[in-house]
Specification:
This protein is an all-beta fold. It contains two helices and 44 strands. The C terminus is likely disordered.
Amino acid sequence: MIKAINNTTVEVTFPEEVDTDVKASDFSIDGLEIKNAAIKQSNKKAVVLTTASQTAEKEYVLSYKDEVIGGFKGVAAVIPTAVKMTEFQNPVVEKETTQVGSHKSQQAPLGTQVTLKAQVTVGEGQSKANIPVTFNIIDSSNKETAHASLNQPIIAEATTDENGVATYTYTRYASTAYELVTEDEVQVYATGNPTARDFSKVYWAAIQPLALTEVTEGNNLNNGAKKVYKVKLAGGSGQTVNVGFLDNVNVTPDKANKGVTVTDPTGKDLGYPGQFTTSSVDETNNKQVKITLDKKGEATFTLTGSSETVTPFVWVDRKGVNNTDPTVGRFDKTELVAFAPPVAFGKIQNMELTLTALGTSNAAAFKDGADAKIADKLGAQSAYTYSNDVVNSKITKTAASKLADDLENTGGRDYKAVLKDKAGKLAPSGTDVKVSVKSGSALTTTGPVYLVDNNTSTVYRLDSSKSEQEFTLKTDSKGEVSFTLIGKKDSYATPRALKNLHFLR
């Protein structure tokens, strides 16, 4: 196979591996000078020919050792001026900072896949498609120790799509002798212009290399409340990890969020973390917050505060070891990092919820087969949301009317819940309201029980193996939640704060 990769590169693929002494003089192209020939690093069957500039769309004939082996069509010159690793978006924060928006590292357990992406930049009006990009991946773990990784280097080439993005997916299997984190340095460059390159890192371990999980629920908390997190670092016994707020990265001290502080597992108040633009990369007087891990590589920390929103994250400070931007006490884009969602502390008004049952407590059960339509919609799922029928941008049938058709002859009992604050103000449309439902049957076997959210036209099938389930419903513009419980004969459902509801003939 012969293919012009770009304006000065032609790739020739042979059926077998090529001798290592391949020379440019072995090849000839009518009307085009061959300047160099080299075996492709990632494919020993392929020879890459460097040519003089080709004439776009011109048909060329290629000979190998004086024998014509095929031809190709010349292409216009498209040499990338830059290549950048696609960065990964961090949780969104309000402040615009230089490092908060994204990061350039990935992490994964051994045996799982990681996908690398690189974006090329080309001249105005030039095509970004089919440009070769090389990924050079080297395990940068210390190979001189007894616990060194056995992962071998990888050199792989991928061509860009129409958006100029080249993609390569790979995995690692070899581990260190302990549960230590190993790391790959990834160099990516344009095959036709190696000076256009970028760098990132991938961290591996037998388990997730670094994990940050929420111990306590809720991310909208009253002032003075506590939010607890757990950190786990693979092979991290006795090590320290840094705790930061994305909102406080690369800001001036006066712009830092200071209303939320960190408490370590011993109860010591560590203050708030900050990484300021007024401190140079060599200074250590940033407001560092560090947590020491136990023998399992684990630790908890607590956030508490008032009238502030922060986005917590943890990272392992590499301190200049195998890092492209070595700094001390500052988060660098290629360091091992884990993020948590934003958490807000503020004054939360208590809402009053009034739940009203309509109709009788002994509601009509659905007849055999009456639930067939909703059961068909649900399939193996536990929930299904109806949508509008739209033809030529016009709604021909609403989701609510489609749901009503499917609920014909299913009986059941309707409920309304109204959410207000103490001043009587209705909750905004779309406010979450949790409804807990106990269900069961007087018989050994019975048909299913369904909960219908009338505001969102969603049907939920209750899990018969669970005695109680919780559902999150949405208020409408009146601050109301409207739902219906339906079931077969001798089954029952009990919404929270109501007496048992039985389904009869």
